[in-house]
């Protein structure tokens, strides 16, 4: 079947930018301390800001990478501006407008530690890692547990390739992942000491080696911006967005189910599995519908089981989807 993807973000801005985006832009302008009179003239600002973080990044010449047509979504793409200025990255603040603050993150040198139940523990620099994997582009849906959603072209490589490089021992059942948490100056959100830093997530080995599990290194044909998790983040699109951990510095293979950041914070609200399921409500809100970044929050569309990826992942959850949000 031929699916024509309407590239929403290639349309003129006026055709695709609804009210919320203008609100965001005003807030960005405010955050940058620019006089409101300049705001109207500064219409290029958010786009420039969005990709400011990738200037001079080594490996930038690897992009764009070939698109894998197998992973296509019959939905308009989210605009680069929306995807790079409406973010969750609590290390930089517990609100959506963290894109400017995130520019402080130093993404080189960037070494990833691979440890735990592996043949031999090792550390690998991101640019060395990029030479050892096959990069491709995949258009994926993303569904935050808060009910906003987006559709973006990620660049990266199948997580399975990283698992193979790591050479896990047969006893490894889970992979624990951590985000950098080294400097409160770099990441002001770390000062919020009630959060269980560092950010931690985990997958089973079966999930991590499923074809959908993707290690992201790029976005819209360029290196992934800092606010979206540079230089290495996860995309597991059948799960709520919080599973897709950003700015990863450590992967640990283990035989114990890792406790995640959000479980440590509120076990009754966020599960380990966290599979997208319209029938399982969050204790404080329904998950039956969602809204796309760029649309009005009141323009809801139905949430899809496993975010539409049941064909690829449902077999991982033999007890059924209803049981695969919590625990
Ligand atoms: N380290 C870290 N990773 C994180 C988060 C975070 O706060 N810190 N937020 C998660 C949540 S809740 C979502 S919805 C996605 C948002 O990714 P995006 O900003 O690229 O859309 O990142 C996820 N990864
Ligand atoms: Mo989220």
Question: Which key features would you list for this structure?
Answer:
single chain, 327 residues, alpha+beta, Sulfite Oxidase, Chain A, domain 2, 10 helices, binds molybdenum atom
SSE layout and pairing:
Elements: H1 13-16, H2 19-31, H3 36-39, H4 45-51, H5 80-85, E1 111-116, E2 122-125, H6 126-131, E3 136-143, E4 148-158, H7 159-166, E5 174-179, E6 200-204, H8 205-208, E7 214-219, E8 222-223, E9 233-235, E10 248-254, H9 261-265, E11 289-292, E12 301-302, H10 310-313
Parallel strand pairs: 1-10, 4-11
Antiparallel strand pairs: 1-2, 3-4, 4-7, 5-6, 5-10, 7-8, 7-9, 11-12
Bound molecules: ligand MTE and molybdenum atom.
Descriptive overview:
By secondary structure, the protein is an alpha+beta fold. It has one domain (45-316): Alpha-Beta Complex (Sulfite Oxidase, Chain A, domain 2). 19% of the residues lie in helices and 20% in strands. The chain is built from ten helices and twelve strands. It has helices at 13-16, 19-31, 36-39, 45-51, 80-85, 126-131, 159-166, 205-208, 261-265, 310-313, and strands spanning 111-116, 122-125, 136-143, 148-158, 174-179, 200-204, 214-219, 222-223, 233-235, 248-254, 289-292, 301-302. The strands form two sheets. Strands 3, 4, 7, 8, 9, 11 and 12 form a seven-stranded mixed β-sheet that branches. The chain has a five-stranded mixed β-sheet with strand order 2-1-10-5-6. The two termini are 38 Å apart. Bound molecules: the ligand Nc1nc2c(c(=O)[nH]1)N[C@H]1C(S)=C(S)[C@@H](COP(=O)(O)O)O[C@H]1N2 and molybdenum atom. Molybdenum atom binds next to loops. The site of ligand MTE has 17 residues, from loops.
